[in-house]
Amino acid sequence: MQDESRHDRASAEPGRRAFLKTSLGAGFALAVQPVSAATVTTPSDGLTVGEVRVPSLGVEIPAYRAMPASGGPFPIMLVVQEIFGVHEHIKDVCRRFAKLGYYAIAPDLFARQGDATKADIPTIRNEIVPKVPDAQVMDDLDATVAFAGLSGSADVKRLGITGFCWGGRIVWLYAAHTNTLKAGVAFYGILGGTASPPSELKPRNPVDLAGELQAPILGLYAGKDDNIPMPIIEQMQKGLKDANSSSRIEVFADAPHGFHADYRPTYREGPAKEAWGKALAWFKANGAA
């Protein structure tokens, strides 16, 4: 009965059935061209990589999966996209985790609302992202974990999640949604305030959920971020402290928003490498490795 009610709810959401992206495509998103010369490319040797289809709420959404070619079951790493969708950078992040022994998977969480990889930035911001309900995203992530578990190659008891920008916000929300998560790392995800006013499809933000997190989250944020100013970061930090939470936020003072995105001009090699190291250590320390 619970699954049927979820399906009915999702079907009633705006824009739900108007579009369904059935495959991921190749390369980098149109909106991020041209890519930077600093772009990192992780080879797939020794890995099993490629597109899979995840059943969720009555449809199948495409996802990119990467894991070691032998062994297992492996810890699961959910990789949550930026606003540009599951394009080559997100796939590369999956391969980076797979090289470290993870079953890494990135579901296309915009699949029902549009193809962000082929759209310009105004279209993404105005026509795709605002139509993606948080409830749908939570359901799709749950379905992705279930899919991984049924594969026989993944250990659902060692579940981690990481996300970037739009996906960073989702990391916080997912930690409040499920009790199966071991740990998460949010890269410069929107926390609330004027950058993310509440709406019918996005009723709550991370700053509203600081006391409800069911897994430790490490937030990796930028000190020179026009989208996420220090006052909202400090508000989140206070909320975590007041809740006696094991989650915390670290700020890279001289870095801009998107400092980990090596394919964009915002990339900062020093902070990116330091943040990546902190992320891996966080997952290991909290049982998601």
TrEMBL record:
An annotated Gene Ontology molecular function: hydrolase activity
Listed Gene3D superfamilies: alpha/beta hydrolase
Residues in the signal sequence: none
Organism: Methylorubrum salsuginis
Domain Dienelactone hydrolase: 61-285
PANTHER family membership: ALPHA_BETA-HYDROLASES SUPERFAMILY PROTEIN, CARBOXYMETHYLENEBUTENOLIDASE-RELATED
Coiled coil start-end: none
InterPro entries assigned: AB_hydrolase_fold, Dienelactn_hydro, Dienelactone_hydrolase-like, TAT_signal
Record-given protein name: Carboxymethylenebutenolidase
Matches recorded under Pfam families: DLH
